[in-house]
Amino acid sequence: MSQYAIRGMTCAACQAAVEKQVGKLPGIQSVSVNLLTGSMDVDYDRAVLTDGEIREAVERAGYEVVSKAKTEDGPADAASLQEGETRNVRLRLIVSIIFVIPSLIVAMGPMIGIRLPAFIDPDLRPMSFVLIQFFLSLPIVAINHQYFTQGLKALIRRAPNMNSLIAVGSGSAFFFGIVALFRISEAVSAGDMELLHRYVHSLYYESAAVILTLITLGKYLEARAKGRTSEAIAKLVELAPESVTVMRNGMEIVVPAADVAVGDEIVVRPGERLAVDGILLSGQSAIDESAITGESLPVEKVKGDRVVSASINGLGSFTYKATAVGQDTTLSQIISLVEQASASKAPIARLADKISGIFVPVVLVIAIVTFIVWMLFGPSFEFALSMAISVLIISCPCALGLATPVAVMVGTGKGAEQNILIKSGEALETAHHVQTVILDKTGTITEGRPAVTGVYPAEGVLERDLLRFAKALESRSEHPLAQAVLDYTRDVEISGVELDRFESVTGKGLLAYHGEERILAGNRRFLEEEGIATEMVSEHLDELARRGETPLLFARENRLLGILSVADRIKESSRAAVSAFRKLGIQTVMLTGDNRKTAEAIAARVQVDDFNAEVLPQDKAAFVQALQAKGRTVAMIGDGINDSPALAMADVGIAIGAGTDVAIESADIVLMKGDLNDAVTAIRLSRATLRNIKQNLFWAFIYNVIGIPIAAGLLYPGFGITLNPMLAAAAMSVSSVFVVTNALRLKAFRPLPAEADADPEGSSKITSDPEQDVNEAKQESQSDSRQAEKGKDMNMEHEIRTMEVSIEGMTCAHCQARVEKALSQFPGVESHVDLERKAATLTGRMLPDEKAVREAVEDAGYTVAGVR
Known about the structure:
Layout: E1 2-7, H1 12-23, E2 28-34, E3 39-44, H2 51-60, E4 64-70, H3 78-108, H4 126-143, H5 146-156, H6 162-190, H7 193-200, H8 205-229, H9 231-238, E5 243-248, E6 251-256, E7 265-268, E8 277-283, E9 285-288, H10 290-293, E10 299-301, E11 306-307, E12 312-313, E13 318-324, H11 330-343, H12 349-377, H13 381-394, H14 397-403, H15 405-417, E14 420-422, H16 425-430, E15 436-440, H17 441-445, E16 446-457, H18 463-474, H19 480-491, E17 500-505, E18 509-514, E19 517-522, H20 524-529, H21 538-546, E20 550-556, E21 559-570, H22 574-583, E22 587-591, H23 596-606, E23 610-612, H24 617-629, E24 634-638, H25 644-649, E25 652-656, E26 669-671, H26 677-711, H27 716-719, H28 725-744, H29 770-796, E27 801-808, H30 813-823, E28 830-834, E29 839-844, H31 850-859, E30 863-867
Parallel strand pairs: 15-22, 15-24, 22-23, 24-25, 25-26
Antiparallel strand pairs: 1-3, 1-4, 2-3, 5-6, 5-7, 7-13, 8-11, 8-13, 9-10, 9-12, 14-26, 16-21, 17-18, 18-19, 19-20, 20-21, 27-29, 27-30, 28-29
Helix pairs in contact: 1-12, 3-4, 3-8, 4-6, 4-8, 5-6, 6-7, 6-8, 6-13, 8-28, 11-15, 12-13, 12-14, 13-26, 13-28, 14-26, 14-28, 15-26, 18-19, 22-26, 26-28
């Protein structure tokens, strides 16, 4: 795919002309022209077609290829071209204003009571009056010559565009002024005062000047607004440092970032930003990767860890080896992704493209018909000319051309600000139709790695002793669950005990010795085979299984020490995101390869509408197809690796938590963070963008539908209302600026605030009818809302109350934190846990009942001694 920067396009008709001309070339596989960015993306067979032939086709269409904005080998420079174009328009505007003001004063002054000097008085010096207007309008016509050169070329090629309308409209006014100049000269020579008076007061120089000035003003405002739409890309580009320090021949030298090669050793000092991706060779530091991953906390990096471009180094210094440079860095891939999305077309744009192809010819026909009708039935030639010019000038194909791309650019840019990368306008549009969201469990709903969720010492055993033996045993195991135990004991600063004679029993557990005492860890079957009784914890083991948690049992000699429960923890945002999907009327379905019991537990906690367990990766795509066959628009959310077939099959594939590898190949939308709420934000952003596009298209259509008949004089016979060409020019400029400004309102889009994940023990609705699921979800959402309002009113009627809970089993700050987390599930209740007093204090207007408090504390692994 190659991208070209094209100069001279001003409306949707220009865009259509370039696409048509280039699309006819042999070897062209796809061509997409973006009016907003002034760029053209071309995919072609290089064995059949050359770059030069593509350039010639663009020139035949009447436009100029100023550079190859982006190729597979080089960076984009379209932004600098846009900046240069803005400066050019500003210069033209300044010159036009300088000359249009005196031109208006001279032309309109006598009508509004301004007395002109005698040497240009229309009654005393008519030739001077005409000539001064001619010379004041001439510089305006000259500096805005591209309207005429490009517009007339397009007319000759029978592919008229907006410039053609401006050229014919303002050119007709200026040409009529020249004709009037000769007629006035003839009248002065012949002494024909009637002819002289008629033409002196029917000049159109100021109309031509004002039309060109107002259109140039509109173009300048439009160019500035366009610049604002690409701020997201500009901000991404600014993240890359201009220079870096590299080791060359044993010496540190500073080189431009563009000169860094794969394999270079780069020295990074505190506070510096990383220019390329690489592997850390020496040193260590905490690195802020928020610009790439959205993770707010710095990430500790040591030797062997991967670092990415645009990250900011903390207080440490280190050296790393470059592994990806130039267009291959993570930052460059993200910039490329955003640029591609901004330049791509949404399917809704096809409607505007079709209309634009016939819009300008139709307007020219309407203008000609208007002129003929008013010549036959109107008061004068000047009136007929004025009506025809108004029709040409008020028509605004550029508003149609900008309606979609400007909203797509702002929408995708806004997504990038939220760490949501949208690959194309098509993905952005399709996302707003989504009816069903399929969620992969591991890494999407859950964190994707096992963690200790509970510590349950046996009667008479201290929690610290259980954890010491657990750490000592699991330190010799390579099982993923063992790593979860080690992470947990490291966090609570537990030291292990000395063990020897380790033995791993495959599929069952571990055996070691502390002196002559056996220390065991494993599943229930293993301990029972070793003669250790587990009947007293049967109910507890069943409860853990119901919750989808894996129990690890530990024993010392013939005595049970206790249980550690391990599970893939549910992300804090998952339930809130599922709830948000429900409020959007979207059905949620969880797919997992886990057993049904675990899947049911997770589904119950996050409250998805449906779930399927024991699904193989290759079967996920078939599940997506089955839903699509029922007419559902499906989004698949997964980690972008083992879910890639389903991501590719879905109407919208969303890769979550893909971070540095971006998962570009299989996903349509990439969420840089692992937060499921960002998927909700992506859907909401899609809906907001499509709503904005429809508003823009409505305005562009309705403006032309109403404006053109009025300009043609439809209201003149009955109401005497006409539209002066100067007012028509102002209206046309306002139309384009309105469309761009309306799209800029998307910059105010904000994600929904994160909801608290209250009760983790929900109930899953498992149904087979998607429509019923959505309707029930809406009803439940409305019911919950009414209950919340009712509860709010009831709360106001109660005074603040206090509950004291005595708790046994808390021995450390970690115990205190677990109890606080358990009690935080009660909405509207504040809790404070005092480790020294072994007690918790709950305050609120409506406190939970004693049974609920006991269950919450006991679920956390502790005992309630009393409540008062």
